[in-house]
Amino acid sequence: MDPKLTEVSQVFERFKAAFVRKDFDTCTSLLSQLKVLLTGFKSLPPLFEETPNAIHELTLARDIYEHAVVLSVKTEDQDAFERDFFQLKPYYTDSRGRLPPSPQEYPILGLNLLRLLVQNRIAEFHTELELLSPSALDNPCIKHAVELEQSFMEGAYNRVLSARQTVPHETYVYFMDLLAKTVRDEIAGCSEKAYDSLSLNDARQMLLFSSDKELLEYINEEHPEWEIKNGSVFFQRAKESVPCKEIPSLQLINQTLSYARELERIV
Amino acid sequence: MTQDVEMKEQQAAPSNSLSSTSPSTLQHLKDIAALIETGAYTREVRRIVRAIRWTIQLRKKLNASVLSAFLNFSLVPGSEVHSRLSSYVPKEDEQDMEVDTATSATQAPAKHSLPELEIYSYLLVLIFLIDQKRYNEHCTSKDLNRRTVDVLASRLYFYYSLSYELTGDLAETRGTLLALHRTATLRHDELGQETLLNLLLRNYLHYNLYDQAEKLRSKAPRFEAHSNQQANLMTLLELFYVNQLHSSLHFCRYLFYLGKIRTIQLEYTDAKESLLQAARKAPVSALGFRIQCNKWAVIVRLLLGEIPERTVFMQKGMEKALRPYFELTNAVRIGDLELFKTVAEKFASTFSSDRTNNLIVRLRHNVIRTGLRNISISYSRISLADVAKKLRLDSANPVADAESIVSKAIRDGAIDATLDHTNGWMVSKETGDIYSTNEPQIAFNSRIAFCLNMHNEAVRALRFPPNSHKEKESAEKEERDNSKSKSLQNI
Predict the structure, then answer these.
(1) Neighbouring C-alpha atoms within 13 Å toward the C-beta of A190
(2) Most confidently modeled of B53-62, B294-303, B357-366, B392-401?
(3) Which residues does chain B have within 8 Å of residue A192's beta carbon, measured at their own beta carbons?
(4) From the candidate CATH numbers 1.10.40.30, 1.10.1370.40, 1.25.40.990, 1.10.3720.10, the one assigned to the domain spanning A3-195
(5) Is the Cβ of A165 closer than 8 Å to some Cβ of chain B?
(6) Disruptive mutation site among B217, B357, B408 for chain A (greatest number of A CBs within 10 Å)
(7) pLDDT surpasses 50 at B232
């Protein structure tokens, strides 16, 4: 066996052991070691050279990056997640024919979709979605994210929140919690426009707070313009388009003059 | 092997009847070759464009014997290119060969080694192989830096990519095409650039790689939009016309791909513009292309909340193909979630072959919105439970769903209403008199501005392009003068 390969495998074993112990600091330092070691293999993307150990090396590298992605979720580092995911992606797309499919593929792709949703990058969300085959869309992990996006767009927020109970994978919980925060802001924005007033009790339930104190803190921080009177929250209604009382004469004169100029050019 | 046998059988039947026609086809090919030759010597691109059009007309008459005779005629027998290309053409009956070699021997002048003719031979063989459904045998060609080759080469790229697409391994060509595109850009070979960019976009979109396609598109040299307007306006100058018509077709394709990318990335307004423009600019004969454009345009307009007119679906030759999209539009227009679901299921196979499945999933949201708008218009006050029932929301807690959906619609400005949480009502607001606001004045102004702008653009398009020959010449002169003065100084 290739000595380089043995070395990587050994480091990876130590990484996995630390991973199981939940010793994430060790994991992070081992991971950077592993990434440097991986650059020594020519069979990996972007070179994809045909070496005798190519399949083995590709599988190992894919495994490492899969763990890296999961690790970044555990350490709650979204930037690292994005980096590791992009490094992992070629293993799923460009070496599909050569490697047996990984059992981790769909959970990780679903996780990425969820991340894009949390970061409100809907365009990229849909671009990623187009890459998936119809059979992949039926996978519970992917389906979960797709349905979330739909409910989110429709405004069925309670469906988004109840989806937290049905997460297909334990790593999803982190993003679901983040999503809950986004959803709360959305609900607050919508209620502001839709209601004249809400009783404190209703507002607390709607914004998913467990106590009135939390609600008051939230209002103070995020929406100081809301008024609290007689046990209800009054929203300041946005100014509506008032009927125009006077004619904007200057603007009209300008427009008419420009029409005249243009018409003159035509004639 | 079976393929070969089949092919021989196919040819066995017509070969007798062809014996009279084949010399004439060959004669045509020779005429074309002569045309290309003069074109190459006089550097007139126009002649070569005509030659290609002529070839497409002859396409149906191509067969192995004519082709091998032509190869003997145009290429130096025994040369590398000749032997390579001849190996793709199946051997014919000896009799046929004799007839052809006899005719070609009498007429063929000594040696041709023009690069244009070589490329043309490649093109012919490739077309022939595609017509014979032998997609697996690709032949590639070397490249040359000559303006007159550009036209031929761009056709060659097109058939090259097509042959790979038909075998289903389009991904393999990506590297080659990218390299060719780079070369074409370096050489200012506009036609090659346009062709290759379109081929690459098609390549990426074939695998749904919208991200890569957009990155390439945004970084590649931009298509010159004005050249395409000229194609429509400057019909008098034949040379211009022929050239620009080609690039206008490319532009059309490019707009279609652009529209697709933008649709996926949720830029619906821009996408609609590109797709409608592509559908309008496509030649009448390109029915399949126009149908595709219309399909996508319909969906994009639905996503934008517009309802396409009935005439869109009644265009000649498109009624049947657009039928699923017509029913879909109907469902969205009525705002009936149930009907929408049945339509989506009924035509699921059509939508998935059009690859519009995911877009249709996005439409669900619009259906709900339309339904909600209808309710809000018809009722001044309605309970949320009734709203949920009317929208046919099927979930665990329909009232709560309805409440949050309505509140989001209010925030997005889709309906004008307020919610009453304690009573569980939705109260629609009276629609005020729009003519008491400045709104109509603003709308009127934007329309006038649009018309005036259109007129100005039309006038501008009639002018000669900014970098006309005069400017170029004067620039060259200046350069020459500069270099002269420099060399003088050096002395």
Answers:
(1) 27
(2) B294-303
(3) 411
(4) 1.25.40.990
(5) no
(6) B408
(7) no
Q: What angle do CA A178, A184, A187 make, to 5 degrees?
A: 145
Condensed to tens digits (0 to 9), the pLDDT of residues B439-461 reads: 888 889 889 988 888 888 888 87
- Nearest-10 Cα torsion for A250, A254, A255, A261: 160
**How many other CB atoms sit within 10 Å of the CB of residue B404?**
25
Q: What is the pLDDT of residues A131-167, one digit of tens each?
A: 888 788 888 888 888 888 888 888 888 888 777 777 7
Residues of B in contact with A190 (CB under 8 A): 404, 407-408, 410-411
Chain B: closest CA distance from residue A177 (Å): 20
Measure Cα distances from B484 to B285, B475, B479, B481 in Å.
54, 14, 8, 5
A-chain residues near B448 (CB < 8 A): 259
What residues of B are in contact with residue A122 (Cβ under 8 Å)? 266
- Nearest CB to B419 within list A146, A156, A194: A194
pTM of the complete model = 0.73
**What domains does chain B contain, in order, with CATH numbers?**
1-164 (no CATH), 169-283 (no CATH), 293-378 (no CATH), 380-430 (1.10.10.10)
* DSSP-derived secondary structure letter, B425: E
User: What's the pLDDT score for residue A129?
Assistant: 86
The answer to whether the CB atoms of A259 and B448 lie below 8 A apart is: yes
